[in-house]
Design goal:
The protein has 645 residues and is of the alpha+beta class. The chain has 3 domains: 8-239, Beta-galactosidase, Chain A, domain 5 (Distorted Sandwich), CATH 2.70.98; 244-539, TIM Barrel, CATH 3.20.20; 546-643, Golgi alpha-mannosidase II (Immunoglobulin-like), CATH 2.60.40. The protein is 22% helix and 29% strand. The strands form 8 sheets. An 8-stranded parallel β-sheet has the order 21-20-17-16-15-24-23-22. Strands 1, 2, 3, 4, 9, 13 and 14 form a 7-stranded antiparallel β-sheet that branches. Helix 9 (492-505) runs parallel beside helix 10. It is globular. It starts with 10 loop residues before the first helix and ends with a strand. This is Npcbm new2 domain protein. It comes from Chrysochromulina tobinii.
C-alpha cells in the first residue's frame, strides 16, 4: 500500500506479532497516571501589571504513560501528554529514568514527535520541489503559493531543538507494485519531526535522568494570517503568561548618588515603574564586596520608597570566554571548540561558572533587594567539547545540558519574583522579553529615520510575539555612533512619537540616559508628554498588552497602525488602536477597524478618539467599524473601542 493512500482493510496483514522476550528491546506499556499540569516555576498572575484573570499553572489535564523494555528492566520511559482548557494545544515530552547505579545509558538521539499528516493539516510538501519562493525554468515551488499547515508546531527550547515539516518520501518503504526499487512518485508525504539538532547525548543513571524538550502542537482552523497569528499567541498566553509583565522602565547611565536620586524622583513624577542600572553605568553584579552591596541596598530602598523597582544589567555567558569582550570568567570554565580544541569566546554554562555566577547573583539579590535582571548574552546554543566541566560529560550532551542549566537559572530567578530581560527565546523557562524589531545600528540613525524603521520592525514582529515579549530602544544620550542627531533628549515632538509608538504597542522601550527629561521649557514639555502617555498606557494597560490585528504596515507614505484586541474582556473596553501619521502633512482618512477579533457581536459599538467623549457607531456586516480621522502631521491619534451598553 502507498502511505499517502492507505488501504486500512489490509492493515491486519502487515501488523507484526510480539518479539521474543529475550531480545525485546521495545518499550511497551506498563502503567499510566492522569493528573493536572504542574507549573515549572511559581508565578502570581497580576504581577507587574500582568492579567489577573489567567491561571498558573494553566488549567488542563496531564497523561503520563510509563513504558518498560524487557531487555532493559532498570529503565523507565515516561511519555507525557498535556491538554489545556480554552485552546486546542497539545504538549508532549519524554523522561527516561534508570534504577541502575552501576552504569550510564546514553541517549544518542531522541525524537519527541514524529507525526505524519496530509494537507491541509500537514505542510504542502512535494519531493524534489524547489525551495519555497523559488522559480527555476518556469517551475514554481509548491511552497510559493501553499498556505500554512493547519497543524502548527514549535518547541519550548531556545536552543538545540526543532520542529519542522519534512518530506517523508526518501524514508518511505512503500514499493510501487511491480517495481520494488521505485517510489510512489505521485504522493506527497509531509512528516512533522520534532527532534534535537545535536544529540542530546544525555547520560541516564540512578542519579541523572533525561527530560526532553516539549513539543507544542496547536490545531488551527484557518489559513487566514491574522486568525492563525492570534491562535499561535495563545500558546504563549497559556504556557508563559509571565511574559505579560510589562513594567515601564528607565535605563539609567548616571547612577551616582545624585544621578540615581534624580532619576528616581523623575520616574515617580511621570509614573515609570522600574529603573535598570544600564550597561556602561559602572554597575557590578558579580561582586560580593560588602561596601558596594550596602550602597546598592540603600539606593534600592530609596527607589522602593517611591514605588519603583530596581534591576541591573550583566553579560553572563556570551563573550565571557577566552578573549571575549565581556571579560574571561576563567579558562577552566570556557567552551572548548570541538574542531580545533581551542578555548572559545564564550563561557560554558554547564561548567563551574554556572555555580559561581548563581552564587554571586543569589547573594546580591539577598543583600540588596534587587528585583530585576537584564541578562545580556545568555547561553546561545554553542557546543563545548570539554570533558572536565561540572554539569556536562562532553561534546555529546553539551548543548542539552547548557540549555537545561540556563533554563534552571531563569526558573530560579522567576521563583524569587525577579523580572528577567534576556535577548533570546527563553520564554518558557522564565524569561520575559527579547529585542523586538531590533537592530542596534538603527538607534544611531537620525531620530525620524530611527522611528520609521523601528516602527516597521515592531509591526512585523507583532506577528511573532506578544507585545510584551519584546523591547525597543530610545536613546536619550548618544548610543554607538549616532551622536546628537540620534538622541531624543530635548526633542519633544520626536519623544512623543516614540512614547506613543512603544506605549501604544505595549512594548517596553529602553529609555536610556542620565535623566528622563532636562530642566527648562523643553524639559517641561518632555515631562508633560511622558505623563500623558504613561497615563494613557496605564489607563488601557489590560487591553494594550493583548495581541494586535495589523491594520496598515508603516511605509512612511501615509498612515499606519494596529488594533489591540481583547475579546475575553469582562470590561466594556475591547480594543485600542494607535494610528500614526509619519508624514509632513495632515491626513484626513477613514480607517476601517476589524472588530471580529474584539468579540463584538452587537450592531453598535462605542468609540473614543484621543480620550475624548465616547460616541456610538454602527458595526458593519463584516464586523467592522469605519472611523473618520484627521491625523496631524507627524502625529498620533488613538481610538478606544468599547461594547455598547
Amino acid at each position: 500500500m502507498f502511505r499517502a493512500y492507505a488501504n486500512r482493510s489490509t492493515w491486519h496483514d502487515t501488523l507484526a506479532g510480539p518479539v521474543a522476550a529475550e531480545v525485546n528491546t521495545t518499550f511497551a506499556y506498563a502503567a499510566h497516571r492522569v493528573g493536572a499540569p504542574v507549573a515549572p516555576f511559581p508565578w502570581t498572575p497580576g504581577t507587574r501589571g500582568s492579567p489577573t484573570d489567567v491561571s498558573w499553572p494553566p488549567k488542563g489535564v496531564t497523561l503520563a504513560v510509563d513504558l518498560k523494555a524487557p531487555a532493559q528492566p532498570s529503565l523507565t520511559l515516561t511519555v507525557y501528554y498535556e491538554l489545556y482548557d480554552g485552546a486546542p494545544i497539545l504538549a508532549k515530552w519524554l523522561e527516561l529514568k534508570s534504577s541502575d547505579a552501576s552504569k550510564d545509558v546514553i541517549v544518542d538521539r531522541s525524537t519527541v514527535e514524529l507525526f505524519a499528516a496530509g494537507a491541509p493539516y500537514g505542510a504542502y510538501i512535494g519531493h524534489g520541489s524547489l525551495p519555497p519562493g523559488s522559480d527555476y525554468n518556469g517551475a514554481t515551488s509548491a511552497g510559493t503559493v501553499s498556505p500554512r499547515p493547519l497543524l502548527h508546531a514549535k518547541t519550548d527550547q531556545a536552543h538545540g531543538a526543532f520542529c519542522e515539516w519534512v518530506d517523508d518520501y526518501q524514508r518511505s518503504a512503500d514499493p510501487v507494485p511491480g517495481c520494488p526499487a521505485c517510489k510512489d512518485e505521485g504522493a506527497t508525504e509531509p512528516l512533522l519531526n520534532c527532534s534535537y539538532a545535536l544529540g542530546p547525548g544525555a547520560h541516564v543513571s540512578a542519579s541523572e535522568s533525561f527530560v526532553s524538550f516539549r513539543a507544542l502542537l496547536l490545531a488551527t482552523d484557518s489559513t487566514e494570517l491574522e486568525r492563525t497569528t492570534l491562535a499561535r499567541h495563545r500558546i504563549t498566553q497559556l504556557l508563559a503568561p509571565h511574559v505579560t509583565e510589562n513594567p515601564v522602565f528607565f535605563h539609567a547611565t548616571d547612577v551616582s548618588v545624585e544621578g540615581f536620586k534624580r532619576a528616581i524622583d523623575q520616574m515617580a513624577e511621570v509614573g515609570f515603574e522600574m529603573l535598570i542600572f544600564s550597561f556602561g553605568s559602572g554597575f557590578q553584579l558579580e561582586t560580593a564586596n560588602k561596601e558596594y552591596l550596602s550602597h546598592i541596598a540603600q539606593q534600592v530602598a530609596y527607589a522602593k520608597s517611591k514605588g519603583i523597582e530596581v534591576g541591573g544589567y550583566d553579560l553572563i555567558c556570551l563573550d565571557r570566554g577566552h578573549g571575549g569582550y565581556g571579560g574571561n570568567v576563567g579558562d577552566e570554565w570556557v567552551t572548548v571548540d570541538p574542531t580545533t580544541g581551542n578555548l572559545g569566546l564564550d563561557a560554558c554554562f554547564a561548567s563551574g561558572w554556572y555555580d559561581k555566577l548563581y552564587g554571586l547573583v543569589d547573594n546580591f539579590i539577598n543583600a540588596t533587594g534587587l528585583s530585576m535582571l537584564e541578562t545580556d548574552g545568555p547561553y546561545g546554543g554553542a557546543p563545548c567539547a570539554s570533558k572536565n566541566h561540572t554539569h556536562h560529560h562532553g561534546l555529546e550532551d553539551s548543548i542539552y545540558r547548557q540549555t537545561q542549566m540556563q533554563n534552571a537559572f531563569f526558573g530560579a530567578l522567576r521563583a524569587r519574583g525577579v523580572h528577567v530581560n534576556q535577548p533570546d527565546n527563553f520564554f518558557f523557562a522564565g524569561g520575559s522579553r527579547t529585542g523586538m524589531g531590533y537592530d542596534e545600528s538603527q538607534y544611531s540613525l537620525p531620530r525620524w529615520e530611527d522611528l520609521s524603521i523601528s516602527r516597521a520592525g515592531l509591526y512585523d514582529d507583532l506577528y511573532q510575539h506578544l507585545p510584551t515579549q519584546g523591547w525597543m530602544f530610545v536613546p536619550l544620550v548618544p548610543y554607538h555612533a549616532g551622536g546628537e542627531v540620534a538622541s531624543f533628549a530635548n526633542h519633544p515632538q520626536e519623544y512623543e512619537f516614540a512614547l506613543a509608538t512603544y506605549l501604544g504597542a505595549g512594548t517596553a522601550a529602553c529609555y536610556r540616559g542620565d535623566s528622563l527629561y532636562t530642566e527648562g521649557a523643553q524639559g517641561d514639555a518632555m515631562k508633560a508628554t511622558l505623563k500623558k502617555w504613561v497615563q494613557f498606557y496605564k489607563m488601557h494597560r489590560r487591553t494594550i498588552i493583548e495581541p494586535v490585528v495589523h491594520l496598515r504596515r508603516p511605509d512612511m507614505q501615509s498612515w499606519d497602525g494596529w488594533l489591540h484586541v481583547h475579546p475575553r474582556s469582562t470590561d466594556p473596553e475591547v480594543g485600542v488602536a494607535p494610528i500614526f501619521n509619519p508624514t509632513d502633512r495632515p491626513i484626513q482618512t477613514t480607517v476601517v477597524l476589524p472588530l471580529y477579533y474584539c468579540g463584538i457581536e452587537d450592531p453598535q459599538v462605542m468609540l473614543s478618539i484621543n480620550e475624548g467623549p465616547s460616541y456610538q457607531a454602527p458595526v458593519g456586516r463584516s464586523y467592522d467599524v469605519r472611523v473618520q480621522l484627521t491625523l496631524p502631521a507627524k502625529g498620533v491619534v488613538t481610538v478606544v473601542v468599547s461594547r455598547a451598553a
